UniProtKB/TrEMBL annotation, chain A:
The chain crosses the membrane at residues 12-32, 268-293, 323-344, 356-388. This is Peptide ABC transporter permease. The keyword Membrane applies. Keywords: Membrane, Transmembrane, Transmembrane helix.
TrEMBL record, chain B:
This is ABC transporter. InterPro entries: AAA+_ATPase (IPR003593), ABC_transporter-like_ATP-bd (IPR003439), ABC_transporter-like_CS (IPR017871), P-loop_NTPase (IPR027417). Residues 4-220 form the ABC transporter domain. One of its GO terms (molecular function) is ATP binding. It comes from Jeotgalibacillus proteolyticus. Belongs to the ABC transporter superfamily. SMART domains: AAA.
Amino acid sequence: MRILRFFITRIFLKRWILVLGMIILLFLANYLSFTAARSIISTFQGFQQIETLNQDGTFIANLDPDSKAEDETVNIDKTRKLYEYLHNNYTYALQADGFVTSLDNEHKMEVTFNYINEEAYKINQLRLSQGNHLNFIYQLNKDQIPVLVGAGLAKTYPVGSTIEIKDPVTQQLVNLNVQGVLKKNTYRSNFYAPNSKNYFNFSIFLPVNEEFIQSAGLDLHVNGLMDIALLDSNEEEAMNLKEYIQENLGMKFNFFTQQENVDYFEEYYIYSLKIICTITLLLLLIIVCLAIWNNLISIRLMIKDFTINLVVGLSYSKLRAIFYGYFGLLISITLALLFALIAFNRYGFWLGKANLLATYGIFGLISMDWIALLIVLFIDLIIAFTIVELTIKKIKRIPISVGVLN
Amino acid sequence: MTSIIKLDIRKKTFKKKGFSILHDFELEVEPGERLSIIGESGVGKTSLLNIMGLLDTHYQGCYKLFGSSVKDLSQNKLAEWRNKKIGFVLQESALINSLTIEDNIKLPLLYANNEKDRAVQDHFKRIIYKIGIEPILKKKPLECSGGQRSRAVFARAVMMNPQIILSDEPTASLDSKNKENIINLLFDMNKEFNTTVITVTHDLDLANRHERIITLERNE
């Protein structure tokens, strides 16, 4: 430890510009690996979630990019009729979020309403930290509506409490009864971009039954349609619905089968993941080469210092340990910087009141951040091993000689 | 008397440069002996010093130091012996410029891990008093004169009270006063502690002040 401290403070830091250069290069390598690793983990999480819908007989609706619906062709009567048609002929999962409302809470965040029908609720298998699961049997104007709240609302609205609010989609004054609290960081991934997700820490999950749908406004009807999933269906039924929607609403929807979803994922996402990995590896390789070059320059500048130390009693095994200690310190510094950056980024969502991105975690970091950091640490160990072993090899190739000192 | 150094070198080859030196070279040195090695440039004087100082173990032949075959010693053992048993008196440039003179002198203590020992502290004080470098201890090498730097190099070499002092052109680039100073310090160590002194030099005056002179010749 004394020898390591001596080398760091008296030898390496005397060429601080090279140390700084090495920290910058390692930080770049860490940031790059972290971004790629987290993106892959997030995509994997998203894919796992989408997998629950990738079943035989399931068709997921998606608005065709060429669909040109005129405002006047879509009205509440037509959408009500559509949902009645859906109710009578199909089993479907509906989940619509993004309905923002103001509701007092200790974090002063806006609250998002998330409307979910029983089928979607069964598929999602939301996990609760407190209370009971939703029930879908209630009368809109008579009963309190059982709801689940996100972890960020649990203090203000504990289980059993009542929320009186004007519902954003029915525009009616409703009484919500908090039935349960969602586990922290419950999320939903985008069906078509699995690495992007919304967190429901500041959301209210409201159960949607047929009565509720018929009382809801156009917003929920159209919004719900965008990601609607037909269950236990077949291609013919999906085509029928597609034609029905096109005829009545003038909107062109595609209904993707399980195979099409898998194909899409493999074609588009797996391909993009491969590109991310390749670019990351190439950049990492360039950065590692620059780091090795930086270190070899340091060695050239410090060869006299190393030789004097070898002459008075330093051994190569101690020198190797010194370099591992030195790179251990540099990696710790760069990891701490990366950690601070991620934590600040996560904290930024709280500061910016981004209610669908604000998350809970140890020091603000969520599980995928920690896993990505572990991957970065592993990559760092490989980088350190490569640089140190090459450095020692290079130093050993230079014969220690008193002649070097004269 | 048992030899402290017993060298029997077949040859030392520089593969990259494509030549070899020290063909069938034999040498025995006794404890407390003062030996000088002279010869033209390139005959292998410094290489011989590197071998004797355990800095170079890549040669054909056998080297016994304190009765042990050097090739049987681990790298850590070699480093330990360089630290404790051998002192190198080099030219005045052989100091780390980013360290103070004091830190340069105390460098061997870092590896001996005994910097805080009372006896070591006393030994350090005795040396700097004897060598007369107290006023420059806190200075950096580049702030000192050549003579002062030479004395600092000498102080570092004797800091661990070595049994052998290997010196490579210790008086090169020094004026006559400083040259005399360093020679006296070397021989005082020899007299006081029976330290073996081996000096590589071009300077015949200096060589003649040793008990034995070895002349290395170029191999034809």
